[in-house]
Amino acid sequence: MTDWHTISEPLQLQLAQEALRQASSNIAAYAEALAEEMEAGFMSDRGGNEALRLFATLVRSVHAPEQMMAGHA
Questions:
Q1: Does residue 69 have a pLDDT over 80?
Q2: Domain range summary for the chain, segments of one domain joined by +
Q3: Under 8 Å CB-to-CB from 38, ≥6 apart: which residues?
Q4: Would you say 11 and 4 are in contact if contact means Cβ atoms under 8 Å apart?
Q5: pTM summary value
Q6: Which of 10, 59, 63, 65 could form a disulfide with 28 if both were Cys (CB 3.0 to 4.6 A apart)?
């Protein structure tokens, strides 16, 4: 294990960006799973499943590569 402070700043930035991408992916997956649970009737549906899917799409699009951003909401 390397101490964070001994890693170059560009590498720290790259690692932090990848960690954010992974966190975003996890959050989006949780939102999708919750929407599916609501649709299946396992959780109370108050119209939130579509909002969760929109949220998941937004989270994914924020960290998508530039070429994937065009045409996606």
A1: no
A2: 8-69
A3: 44, 45, 48, 49, 52
A4: no
A5: 0.61
A6: 59
